[in-house]
Write a structure and sequence with these properties.
Helix content is 31%, strand content 27%. It is an alpha+beta fold. The radius of gyration is 26 Å and the shape is globular.
């Protein structure tokens, strides 16, 4: 396994599997970057990685063995949940708590949606069994674990085809003895079954959240292990023996071993890489507060970077392929109480299909044409219009081919699909219908941005937007105008930026220990010992991944709430050497954060819920956006003019088209279309574009409307 110490001798690879394209970035030790976009292969996701990687190896003129690290963002976990193709999952829980998953939070995501249906639990009721045992809230044993019943119930589940089991006993977060005993017994008796134990996945209070997270982990465990093992085999067949890292939902990396045991921490794997990269790009340009806008082929995502750091959450819901922070949406999906970048996601991407509902209204998404058959203009069998087809009909996209000429397109197919399914039924011409499709997508994406700005008390007009993904720079200015944003940044390698961002990330692992004690009753020595134990766990995991000495560091946090509340806020802990001064500072920091979050604070006594440690593995060989040099072939594009329609009801305008390599420091007035291998950047009338010292394209919007 390559370690953090030897990566400087070889090339590193970042790869992100999307619903339409698989994006790969190859970073050479001398700072050169090569990029590739390959159509995703839904039947075998790893095949697209192998194909794209082989192309980059040939392009860079290196050998497979020259690659020392691969950082991978995968949709395997999220797709497994979305498509309901996970393991036959059983649940072993304390007798009397069999229906925790069914009861949930006893609420719905919307008040007046009479057609809403509660998500079906990933573990059906017949495969959830109550086991005789009981541990009290203080950790004392009320009733011993009935091992005979445990084995009997598990045997029945296995006989019915259950191949993954979540073990979630009451109060195991404070005393895990019964869960660990059950795991030891069952692994010996049923070696072919995978077990997910809540005290190892999420040792925190809140029975439903802990059970839900552990069940999701069990549900996706076989698929993730199979996928990663197959990918490893495919890479080895190419001659690549590199360290394989998986992007975690929190914007850090985790080793293949951790990802194989706890895949629940990588459900939001791909989008996190882009946000991590955006924070680093922003720091280079002095933009500490930024809106992150990522539009791909299937969905569009929004997040924020505040004071140079991505906004994080300790809990979110996965629902119908859309994740949302749980402080705003409750009961709509499967709760994952894991650290994650706070991302709002909507089903509006380049492949999102436009359709007319029963009431005659135009709708866009969430259904997507995906990679196969793709938008109508691909000519692969889809005759329904997508957002990409609307952009093609309006003249924004190259009418001959996309992805550097590797993907031929036919604009006539786009126009035909729009006329048949939208223009005809609504009695509109092609351009008007295309503008309608594009505008609906833009409004939907603006809604996602509002979810991470306005709904958090932030004014988007005070922030810049960084836009990436294949469609981000194509729609960025239009979305920014809806929100009143005045500046948009299209970063280098915008179309494959999530993959590039992964190469800039550090390894990160999180550890937690429940405390549940009034803050003024905490014993300083006890807290210091807990933190020391968590530190040791962090350093051990990092050491196993090759991060030792100065390459390994830890940071400390505390979950605090007012006594009697059911939810808490995570506050940085100033020192692990806990004393009265440290706890007093913790209380002051919590009150300040509470005031910032909710608009008020209180003099009520505080309760310390959990102590957390985040272990980071750093390397001087992470991608430095300020020093990288993108291969010139990725910056090439068409040069000339074409007719582009910028507004409904107005005649198309003759618009300059130029390659990204031709944009320099001098401001160029729109209208302008900038093409590159991986994306298209649209600069409408009333806007000005230039390149900064790094190579990012900056678009200043002179005409913005809220």
């Amino acid at each position: 396994m390559a370690t953090a110490l030897n990566q400087s001798k070889g090339a590193r690879v970042g790869c992100d599997i999307g619903g339409t394209f698989t994006d790969i970035v190859l970073a050479m030790p001398d700072g050169r970057l090569f990029v590739n976009k390959t159509s995703t292969t839904p039947d075998s996701l790893g095949r697209a990685i192998v194909q794209g990687l082989q192309s980059l190896i040939d392009q860079a003129g290196i050998r497979p063995e020259d690659i020392t690290e691969i950082v991978h963002g995968t949709t395997t976990a999220s797709n497994t949940i979305l498509q309901k193709v996970g393991a036959n999952t059983g649940v072993l829980t304390t007798e009397g708590f069999r229906d925790v998953l069914e009861i949930g939070r006893i609420r719905t995501p919307t008040m007046f949606d009479l057609a809403w249906k509660k998500p079906q639990p990933l573990a059906t009721r017949r495969w959830r069994r109550g086991i005789r045992e009981r541990i009290a809230a203080d950790g004392s044993v009320v009733a011993a674990l009935d091992v005979n019943q445990l084995v009997e119930e598990t045997g029945e589940l296995v006989a019915e085809g259950v191949n993954a089991i979540a073990i979630c006993f009451l109060n195991s977060y404070i005393n895990p003895a019964h869960e660990l005993q059950a795991k030891t017994v069952l692994q010996k008796r049923f070696p072919g079954v995978l077990f997910s134990v809540s005290c190892e996945v999420l040792p925190e209070i809140k029975e439903y959240e802990r059970t839900s997270t552990t069940v999701v982990n069990a549900y996706i465990l076989p698929a993730m292990r199979t996928y990663l093992a197959r990918l490893r085999e495919d890479l080895q067949a190419m001659g690549i023996e590199a360290s394989l890292q998986v992007m975690a939902s929190n914007g850090g990396m985790m080793g293949i071993g951790a990802a194989s045991d706890k895949p629940v921490f990588a459900v939001a794997s791909g989008p996190a890489g882009g946000v991590a990269g955006a924070a680093r790009i922003g720091a280079l340009g002095g933009n500490d507060d930024m809106i992150v806008f990522d539009m791909g082929g299937t969905t569009a995502k929004a997040a924020i970077v505040v004071k140079g750091q991505p906004s994080l959450t300790n809990e979110y819901e996965f629902r119908d392929g859309i994740s949302a922070p749980s402080r705003f949406v409750k009961g709509g999906g499967y709760v994952l109480k894991v650290p994650a970048i706070d991302i709002a996601e909507v089903g509006a991407g380049g492949g999102s299909i436009a359709w007319i509902d029963a009431g005659g209204l135009l709708c866009v998404g969430p259904e997507s044409a995906g990679a196969a058959p793709g938008p109508a203009c691909y000519g692969k069998g889809n005759d329904r219009p997508t957002v990409t087809d609307a952009n093609m009909a309006l003249g924004y996209l190259n009418p001959q081919a996309l992805a550097g000429g590797s993907l031929p397109v036919d604009p006539a197919l786009s126009a035909r699909a729009i006329d048949r399914h939208v223009g005809g039924p609504l009695k509109m011409d092609t351009l008007a219908a295309a503008h309608g499709i594009r505008h609906l997508a833009n409004v939907s994406m603006a809604r996602a941005i509002r979810a991470v700005t306005v709904e958090r008390g932030l004014d988007p007009r005070d922030m810049s937007m960084i836009a990436f993904g294949g469609g981000g720079p194509l729609h960025a200015v239009a979305v920014a105008r809806i929100l009143g944003i005045r500046r948009v940044l299209a970063p280098i390698m915008a179309g494959v930026f999530c993959s590039a961002g992964m190469l800039s990330a550090d390894a990160e692992h999180n550890f937690v220990k429940a405390v549940l004690r009034p803050l003024d009753a905490c014993v300083h020595g006890d807290l210091a010992r807990i933190l020391s134990t968590l530190d040791d766990q962090g350093y051990t995991v990092l050491s196993g991944e090759g991060y030792r000495g100065s390459a390994a560091r830890v940071s400390h946090y505390a979950d605090v709430r007012y006594l009697g509340q059911s939810s808490e806020l995570t506050v940085p802990l100033r020192s692990a050497a806990v004393d009265g001064e440290v706890l007093a500072q913790l209380a002051a920091d919590f009150n300040a954060l509470y005031q910032q979050t909710f608009g008020y604070s209180s003099e009520e006594p505080l309760e310390l819920v959990n102590l957390r440690v985040s272990a980071h593995g750093t390397s001087p060989h992470r991608l430095d956006f300020g020093q990288c040099r993108v291969d010139t072939s990725a910056l090439q594009g068409t040069e000339g003019e074409r007719q582009v329609s910028f507004a409904p009801g107005e005649a198309p305008r003759t618009t300059r088209v130029m390659p990204r390599a031709g944009v320099g420091a001098e401001r160029i007035a729109g209208p302008l279309v900038i093409e590159s291998y991986d994306t298209t950047i649209v600069v409408p009338p009333g806007c000005f574009a230039h390149a900064d010292a790094i190579g990012n394209i900056i678009i200043d919007i002179e005409e913005a409307s809220a």
